[in-house]
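Appendix B. Extra example for self-study. Work through it before the problem class; the solution is given directly after the inputs so you can check yourself.
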Amino acid sequence: MTFFAASGLTINFGGIRAVDGVSFEVEAGQVFTIIGPNGAGKTTIFNLVSRIYEPLQGRLVFCDEDITRVPPHQIARRGIARTFQNIELFEHATVLQNLLLGRHAHKRSRFVEELLFLPRVRALELEHREAAERVIDFLDLQAYRDSLVVNLPYGVRKVVEMARALCTQPKLLLLDEPSSGLSVEETEDMAFWIQDIRALLGITVLMVEHDMSLVSAVSDRVLALNYGRSLAIGTAQEVQEHPEVIKAYLGA
Amino acid sequence: MRFLFKTAYTQDLGLFRDAVQRNTYVALLAGLLVLPKVVPDYFVDVTLVFIYGLCGLSLMTLAGYTGLVSLGHAAFLGIGAYAHVFFAHDLKMPWVLSVALAAAVTAAAGVLVGLPALRMTGVYLSIATLAFALIIQEVFTRWDRVTGGLKGKPVDKPVLFGISFANDVAFYFLCLGVLIGALWLTANVLRSPTGRAWVAIRDSEIAAQSMGVNLAIYKTMAFAYSAGLMGIAGALFAHKIGFLAPDIFSVLLSIQFLLMVVVGGLGSLHGAVFGAVFVAMLPVLISQARDAVPAWAATLAGPLGKSAAAGAFQAVDRFVKQPGLEPGIFGLILVLFILFEPLGIYGRWTKIKVYFSLFPLYKRATFRRQRAYMRSERLR
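Solution. Structure tokens for the complete assembly:
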């Protein structure tokens, strides 16, 4: 069975070929990391996987299903959740409300029932709340449950965004630069959490990351990109020592 | 300072924060119930506040919660009003059925506007809704078989289940009941997944989409719900003014609705009601100011001599009696609120409450808006 596979992904922005025939495969239970210099096309690949961009060519397969043409709002329902590089939380809502929105893919109430707030809606709301509370426990967010996101420091927002993604109960979690903007301690916490997400929740992680200590600590496989093309794929060690990768980062 | 000690998840599902808040609303309701007895001369104006409150609620769900600013809500009000009068008066339908049908027709119109609006955001959407409002106003004028055209259309007093609501007190209670019902329904939607999805669309469309929110469906739903509420408001509005003419549903009225939600406070149900009170009182304040301000000017200029005083009186009087002054004042208030109190009256109210609950420790920075430097490029 193929858990997740991208083959020959290609996209153009105007005259620029941002991603050029990139192929990779992620096995269930892995932490798979994409690295590369700025502008290499890492986030673009994420946007392709979460179907925000339409690929020019290529195919995405998730759990043996072709998801290349699935509309973006259906992606969460298939079991793929994501975070954003620059944090896209709902700022004028509390942390709890953000997490509950993460449960949207599991929404089962109809509009008319909600208008009258029937007992069924109440029961479903409690169910969503319990799921959100499990994530709050998991990521130690109890202290921030009722604070507005605008009032939270950057490091906490990063965790809240990950929590929101976990609330969708994904099979595959896409983390876009989980450590960007975090302090050294926060980055270490992030590494532990990523390991826990895989070990305790059994979620496969696909991430984009620059911090090589975090990459080596958690990744099973690493893909290095430059100018939209894949340079090397293998373990963190192998990729870091690959001559093409060193050339891309340090120049010839 | 009071601390809420929460022991069960159901506490967060209630309509009210705690018993104190609930009792406040019960007291307010009791006050409103005896109001016609206490101030028999003025409660008629409060009826208008209730109808405006419905309008505010309608635009609040769309602009305040879903982030879709409409400049055409007067058109929905008009569609609701004309549809109701057509069903109840021309087709002799029972009142409740007629209002329900009027709401349905208006909601359908909302969907029609919402569908092309899915591709537009921000100011472009506002312009599109403005254009829609102008078209609809033209339709009201031309389609005289249904609307009576420029001659207008008289509206009968409401009769529900054989009971006449012809007298002002009865109509007051009818409007109050409808407003409370609408508030309850809206609060219910807002504490459910649909309401959360609307807020999510307002704050970040791309994140909402990635969490599984179908933008097209939820935006259309917001339009339909908002328009439907406006349709009900329109039916009551028709009875309130007693006579429908196309020029009532002008752009100025749409701007008044926008003024209502911005001044009241975007993103809160309280704001819709506060804004309705404000907008209903504003014309009264303006007309009183019209009479008073020239005299003040004359008093100020008094020390300069009699002719100066008379001159000042006349100049100011001529200025305040200019016909275009009222929309100008609306616009000015809108701009001032956006600049100095973007959270509106409700925001100011929360700040005052926080000030007293934290009394010696209040920090002004608590509510300072911070600029968001780190937002990803908006992917649409």
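Self-check: The interface with chain A takes residues 9-10, 12-13, 185, 188-189, 191-197, 199-200, 202-204, 206-215, 221, 267, 370, 372, 374-376, 379 of chain B (CB under 8 Å). If your reasoning did not lead you there, revisit section 3.
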